[in-house]
Specification:
Blueprint (H helix, E strand, L loop, with lengths): L1 H17 L17 E2 L5 H4 L28 E15 L6 E18 L4 E25 L2 E27 L2 E23 L6 E20 L5 E9 L3 E11 L2 E12 L4 E9 L3 E11 L11 E3 L1 E11 L14 E15 L2 E16 L2 E13 L7 E15 L11
Antiparallel strand pairs: 1-4, 2-3, 2-18, 3-4, 4-5, 5-6, 6-7, 7-8, 7-9, 8-11, 9-10, 11-12, 12-14, 13-15, 14-15, 15-16, 16-17, 17-18
Length: 412
């Protein structure tokens, strides 16, 4: 049975790494910087609005704080799928809907010693996403010749993390965890201008960036106060190496293509969280801070980068593990809400995001099926900015087995 389940997840993993499955988002604001950051991975944490720094789970693989990996009970494998729906509402013009769906990572968690919270995990998951498609019109006059046109902007891609992580409890009520990851990925951006006028021709450009880099994460968990869990995480991300292939096309002229190699600063981040157990219920909250002020990548005129703050909170009805209770009590329920002050400042106005979430953990024997929905809005107070309404639906399947256990010894 274990081998069959492992083969299924291996098959899904191979699909994931060979089909560019992490280009998700659907946001026009993802054209800035490295794109939209993924707050959490897995539906059980998406259902909590990403609240995860100090949230223990018996089945969800926590990639936000590696110190929480050892709080599982079984070796588990997890694969997810995500749907994104965006409705972009400009201050003037027609609203535009965007939809996409992608695989949401693959992870395996191996429990070595539950008493010492010893565990390690490997897998891949998306950390940023770029997915936008928009256009703008213009009218102008050169000399005495009037002309008009339309420019189309389109982008897709993102950064994926291939990671290995582990946790261990050196003494009672304190657990440490760490992870290292290789940053892989690419993005493609295109700009096409269509001109209408005498002796005017269209032009286009296409830029493909290939990312390579690394990151490291250190997390801690403290449980010395009854019913209270406190967690903290610090993430180090050295510079990201980028190879850019740029191609310019113009009517009646040969295409021009050249390649550049550059380094870009990637910000470090700090996060703090807590959760409190109320018996059958629990509450939790997170705070995260990152500084993007030194980032110059994809920063256009009128746009500045600064610090990012994320706040989130959740309320959960924990699922019962007892065999004698009705099936409805074995289902876990989650509600969450959050606010993000993004690092992007457009014409003096900060980009911000507000959202709420809900979801369930549904058991099927040793397997857990998690579902989550996140609903929110993003934009600025600027009169010319676009307001985004979004809905994200995540589905995660997790299966578990006891793999590492002592051999039985016969007594003579």
């Amino acid at each position: 049975m274990i081998v069959k389940k492992f083969v299924v997840f291996l098959f899904l993993f191979l699909i994931a790494i060979t089909s560019n499955v992490f280009s998700q988002g659907g946001s026009n604001y993802s054209l800035f910087g490295f794109g939209d950051e993924r707050v959490s991975t897995g539906a059980t944490y998406d259902a909590r609005s990403g609240t995860s720094i100090a949230v223990k789970s018996d089945h969800g693989i926590n990639l936000a704080n590696p110190a929480l990996l050892g709080y599982g009970e079984f070796t588990r494998m997890q694969v997810g799928f995500r749907f994104n729906q965006h409705l972009n509402i400009p201050k003037s013009g027609e609203a535009v809907a965007q939809f996409n769906s992608k695989l949401d990572g693959f992870s395996a968690l191996f429990m070595l010693d539950t008493a010492k919270k010893a565990a390690f995990s490997i897998g891949i998951f998306p950390s940023t996403s770029v997915n936008y498609k928009t256009s703008s019109t213009f009218n102008d006059t050169v000399g005495s010749v009037p002309f008009k046109g339309k420019t189309f902007f389109e982008g897709s891609g993102g950064i994926t993390n291939a990671y290995i992580a582990g946790s261990y409890s050196p003494f009672t009520n304190f657990t440490i965890g760490g992870s290292v990851a290789a940053l892989l990925g690419n993005s493609v951006r295109s700009v096409q201008s269509v001109l209408v006028g005498e002796n005017l021709f269209s032009s286009s450009s296409r830029i493909e960036d290939v990312y390579r880099g690394s990151s490291a994460k250190l997390g801690v968990i403290f449980t010395g106060i009854p019913n209270l869990t406190i967690g903290a995480v610090y993430t180090i991300q050295p510079q990201v190496s980028m190879t850019s292939t740029i191609r310019y096309s113009y009517f009646l002229l040969p295409d021009t293509t050249f390649r550049t190699i550059s380094q870009e600063t990637s910000p470090n981040s700090f996060a703090l969280g807590f959760s409190y157990d109320l018996g059958d219920f629990s509450v939790a909250s997170d705070f995260e801070h990152s500084d993007y002020s030194s980032v110059k990548y994809r920063k256009t005129e009128g746009v500045t980068f600064g610090s990012m703050q994320r706040f989130s909170a959740s309320f959960s009805k924990n699922r019962s593990r007892r065999f004698s209770v009705p099936y409805s009590e074995k289902i876990g329920y989650h509600l969450g809400a959050g606010y993000i002050s993004h690092y992007v400042n457009i014409n003096g106005s900060q980009l911000s995001e507000q959202f709420a979430s809900l979801g369930m953990d549904i058991p099927f024997g040793d397997a857990i099926f998690d579902v989550a929905g996140v609903f929110g809005t993003r934009g600025t107070t600027n009169d010319t900015s676009t307001r985004e309404l979004f809905a994200r639906f995540t589905f995660t399947l997790s299966i578990g087995e006891t793999w590492f256990q002592p051999f039985k010894r016969e007594q003579y």
